[in-house]
Amino acid sequence: MTGRFGQVVGYCRVSTVDQNEARQVAALGKVDRLFVDKASGSSTDRAELNAMLAYVRDGDTVRVKSPDRLARSTTDLLALIKSLRSEGVEVEFTDSPGLSTTSDQGEFMLTILAAVAQLERATIRERQMEGIALAKARGVYQRQPKLTAEQVATARDKIDRDGVPVARVARDLGVSRQTVYSALRGEGPYARTGGSPQ
Q1: Domain map of the chain by residue range?
Q2: Is residue 41 within 8 Å of residue 69, measured between CB atoms?
Q3: 61-64 and 33-38: which strand pairing?
């Protein structure tokens, strides 16, 4: 890496191993280094994307054909761009130059996208809470149990047979003492099976 500065790093993604990345590569033009993923864009945990993120340095520019090749959701896209920019790396989209971080227009559009994503998250959360409230009013809302049947059985053995304090069992399971008590008593989400959720 010694002596390298200001590289243009290309990134391509095709959804399956059968798809050809040639059109994306052609759209990128000349790059100093190219990373190609053949994977779904539903996750940002991709081998070549991770390799590209580890490779780029301050002063580099990541060039991608379009935003959906980098990430499928606005939230993931903004998080990746923010991460890259924190390292001094710009992002350029050949099909959507208006979203490139190298222009004032791109900065403005990304700010708008971030605001829209924040509003979307708040709206989804609000709808979830409304749905839960309505389900509770109808008496049909049940939280998912935090402990499996096996964990409840293990907790019961440790407490009843081995004399392990409830607080320690709860800490080991990563839940509150109240959750352990509810599970052992068969309350709430554990009621259907008398303390052993399915």
Answers
A1: 8-112, 149-193
A2: yes
A3: unpaired
Residue 83 tokens read as 């991460």
Q: Are 110 and 130 in contact (CB under 8 A)?
A: no
Right CATH for 8-112 from 3.40.50.80, 3.40.50.720, 3.30.390.50, 3.40.50.1390: 3.40.50.1390
Query: 152 Cβ partners below 8 Å, 6+ apart?
Result: 183, 184, 190, 195, 196, 197
Mean pLDDT of the chain: 82
Residues annotated as catalytic (active site), given as ranges: 15
| Model pTM score | 0.55
Cα(46)–Cα(98) distance, rounded to whole angstroms? 26
Question: What pLDDT band is residue 197 in, cutting at 50, 70 and 90?
Answer: very low
